[in-house]
Every structure is written in C-alpha cells, then in structure tokens.
Write a structure and sequence with these properties.
With 273 residues, the chain is of the alpha+beta class. Helices cover 51% and strands 15% of the residues. The longest helix has 27 residues, at 241-267. The radius of gyration is 30 Å and the shape is elongated.
Length: 273
C-alpha cells in the first residue's frame, strides 16, 4: 500500500502530538516537583516524574495514588535509574548510536511541544464543523448494491456460463455449481455493498448495470473472471452530524496543520540530494 505525502504528513503530525515525552512541563513551584518518592545514589525521583512515567505507560492517573500499583511504578523507576546510572558510568550515553537516537527524540519532543503550544492555531469551532458537514453531504451519501456473482478461473468458462444464462439458465443454480468463490454456497450472494468496497473493475461494472441484469461479458479481476447479477440498489443517507463530528474536527485540524507546515516550507531553504 502506498501512502501519499499528505497522509504521511498527517501521520507525522499525529505522532508528534501523541508523543508522551511532549507532555506539558510542570509549572514552576509545582508541589509534585518537590515531593520526593525515592532517591537512588543521591539522584532524586519526584512525584512529577512518577506521574509522567505513568502517563507515558498509558496508565490512568489513579494508579499513582497510594497502593500497590503506585509502589510497583516507583520500583520500576528505581530500576530504570539504576540501569541509567550504570550505563552512563561506562559511557553508553556517549556512543554514536545513542547520541543519534537522543537527537532524534529531542527533535520530536521539541516539534511536538511546538504543535501543542500552537493548539489555538489549530482550533476548530462548531460552526466550521457544521459548514464542512453540509459541504460534504453529497460525498457522505452513497449507493449500495445487492448482487450475486459467479467466479471462474478462465474467460472461456465464464463465456460458456453467460451463454447458459442467455438460454434461460438460473443464475443462483449456476453459481452453486460453477463458482469458485466462497459465496458459491449461497448461490453467489454478495449481500449489500458499496462499489468502492469491491476490487476494480468489479465495482465500476456494478455501477453501470441496471437492476435485474447480468454482465454480458466477463469481468476480470485478480481473483479471476466474474459474471455479475445486480439484484437491487438503494440510496444510503449520510451519517448524522453528531456521529462523525469528531472525524470532521480532526480532518479540519489536520488541514490547518498542513497549512502551517506549508507556510514554513515557503520560507525555508530545502535541499535534497
């Protein structure tokens, strides 16, 4: 599967915003900074570090309250600090590979912090989301098709079956007898689907068909040769606004982020070998 540049950019932005290490720093005077939960060879581990560690682990805030889960997390931090101190003592932190990884993480953290700091720039209000929804009603609406098919390995076999249909053969029976697809047991029934869900040119062929008709020439896909019978079609209303408003919000925010990056690129000198 090939990803577009836009998709990759959105993935990058989403990843930066989700970086655990990019969590907001504790404000000056934060009592969590002053509350020490352990000391390892003179190095203090404070409550803020404990809570940040739990957040990075994807754990709910309540695990840092008094109890066995909190104690287990503190023990993990102690172990982490011991390993870190030992690594530094033998120069692991100075190796080129580790230095490169540290630099990579530093860039991600700073870039992620910039996006979080600029969150107001990417804010989207209700009016904008509703306007976007209204503009996409046609796109969000769709047509669903109900069809059967007979899948065979060769064009010659497919044409022979079409000839049987032309002579009055029963499509369901022929599907049960000849189709190599899993739907053969149900007479080739594919149920309801959108054309976009099917491999092309299968989906395109269905869109051009009239209800009750079958394809007069076989349709070739990677699976083989198809004879298609269109049984019915129906219009599907767009989903309610409330059910997709968050998807719309994310889409609009991503576009704002794209615009932000586009402006930066306009002012930048970018060279590629």
């Amino acid at each position: 599967m090939h990803l577009s540049t836009k998709t990759l950019s959105i993935a990058l932005l989403t990843g930066l915003l989700a970086l655990p290490a990019a969590s907001p720093a504790a404000p000056i005077g934060d009592p969590d900074k002053a509350r020490i939960v352990a000391t390892v060879n003179g190095k203090e581990i404070n409550e803020w570090t404990l809570k940040s560690y739990a957040q990075q682990r994807g754990l709910p805030p309540e695990v840092t309250a008094d109890g066995p889960q909190r104690d287990a997390l503190i023990e993990e931090l102690i172990n982490r600090e011991l390993i870190y101190q030992n690594a530094v003592s033998i120069g692991v932190d100075k190796t080129p590979a580790v230095q490169a990884e540290i630099e990579h993480l530093r860039i991600n953290i700073v870039a992620g912090a910039m996006l979080n700091r600029s969150s107001d720039r990417f804010a989207v209000d209700e009016a904008e989301m509703k306007k976007e929804y209204e503009s996409r009603l046609d796109e969000l609406s769709s047509t669903e098709y109900k069809a059967r098919h007979i899948l065979v390995a060769s064009e010659h076999e497919a044409k022979a079956i079409i000839e049987e249909l032309n002579q009055g053969g029963d499509f369901t029976q022929l599907a049960s007898e000849h189709s190599t697809g899993p739907s053969a047991t149900s007479g080739g029934d594919l149920g309801w689907f959108r054309a976009e869900q099917m491999m092309q040119p299968f989906g395109d062929a269905v869109k051009e068909m009239k209800k009750g008709a079958y394809t007069k020439t076989p349709v070739k896909t990677d699976f083989g040769w198809h004879i298609i019978l269109l049984e019915d079609e129906r219009s599907v209303a767009p989903p309610p606004y409330d059910s997709i408003k968050e998807q719309i919000r994310v889409g609009l925010q991503n576009q704002l982020m794209q615009n932000y990056i586009a402006d930066l690129r306009k002012e930048a000198k970018i060279e590629k070998p």
